[in-house]
Structures are given as structure tokens and as C-alpha cells.
Prior knowledge:
mainly beta, UDP N-Acetylglucosamine Acyltransferase, domain 1
Amino acid sequence: MGEPTVKPGCQIAEGVVLGENAVLHEGVVIGAGCRIGSNVTIHAGTRIGDDVTVFDSAVLGRLPQGTRSLRRAPGAAAALPPLTIGAGSVIGACAVLYAGTTLGDEVLVGDGASIREDCTVGDLTVIGRGVTVNCRAIIGRKVKIMDLSHVTADCLIEDEVFISLLVGMANDPTMGRRAPGETVAYQGPTIRRGAAIGAGTILVPGVEVGEMAMVAAGSLVNRSIPAWKSAAGSPVRVLGDVPR
């Protein structure tokens, strides 16, 4: 059996259980009653609230790393604030959470999910198995994002939104085709409070789904949907009102 490795400067509260081969890098803070699984890696400075469960082989607080031609500006990754995980949260096996991101209290992150840097996830939100959340995404409270969906960078998801499985989003209106040095205004979708997105739906850059709107499964959302409207189709069209 491999003993956990705890680097200097870590603060570990009472009642914390560390699994076999867990590695805690410098300055990690773990609150009372946490349970850290086997082979978990927690990178420097990560802060974990009370009563958090982290399942086996999760990676917490890693820094982004591109290839030589795709790296951030020098020192930008190292300047990210530490990953923060709120009290009562559960992090699934093999999940990867980056530095610079903040999770609220009682957030559930499913097995194999990935949340990139500079993201915010509100209290009581569920991030399903295999979900990918790209950088700078803002996700509100009591949101449910089901398995294998992709939340693109630079998007806003307000409170109490439901996103079904296999939903995809995009934020690059050029689809990568631009001249060298040309700048692009990336903008992911905006999904307002209480909206529901059906399974297999695709949302293109910059669209807005209004408050309490409902989008049927398999839709292509290439235009904005007003609040309290139901919509379906590829391309999507408004069908009528959502019953109040």
C-alpha cells in the first residue's frame, strides 16, 4: 500500500481521510471531515471546504498547459488563483478541475468531468459524467448539466437551468478560419434562468435562450429564443408559449 504524500505548508483539518498514493502539493488547504480517494493529485494552493468527497484519481487545481505554439503569455498560467471547492461538494473519479476556478457549496461533479480555468459554478449545481466545461464559463446555482455535454468558453448559464445529455455549444463564429493575427470576439451562448435544453441540441455562438424557455431535443439553435417560449427544429423555430 502506498502512503499519501503531503508537501510542506499543507493545512489539513481534523477528520480528513487521505487515500493510498494521494499527493498534496505545497500549500493545499483541506477542511474538516473531507475524504480524499486513492491516487488523487491536489496541486499547490488548492482550497477545499469542509465535508468534501473526492473520488479516486481525480486531479484538482492543475495549471493549463498548451504546446509551444499554443501557450499563454509567459507567467499567465502561474498567476491563476487557486482552485476553490465549496463545503459538501462531491468530485467524481478521474475528474479534472483547473486552477482559477471556483465551485460553490454542495456541487456534484461526475466521473470523468473536466472544468477548465477561470470558471465559476454556483451552489447545488450538478455537472454530469464526462461533461466538459471550457474556460471562463459562468454557471449559476441549482443548474443541472447532464452527461457528455460540452459547455463552451465565454458562456453564461443562469440559475436553475436544465441542460440534458449530449448538448453541444460553440463560441467561435469563424470556426477557426481567420487570417494570422486576426482577433476574434469569442462569445458563447447565454442561457437565462430556468431555461431547459433538450438532449442532443446544438447552440451556435452568441445565441440567447430566454428565461424559462424550452428547447426540444435535437434542435439547432442558430437564433435567439425569447423568454417563456418553446422551440424546436433544425434550424430552430418558436412553437408557442411555455405554460406558466
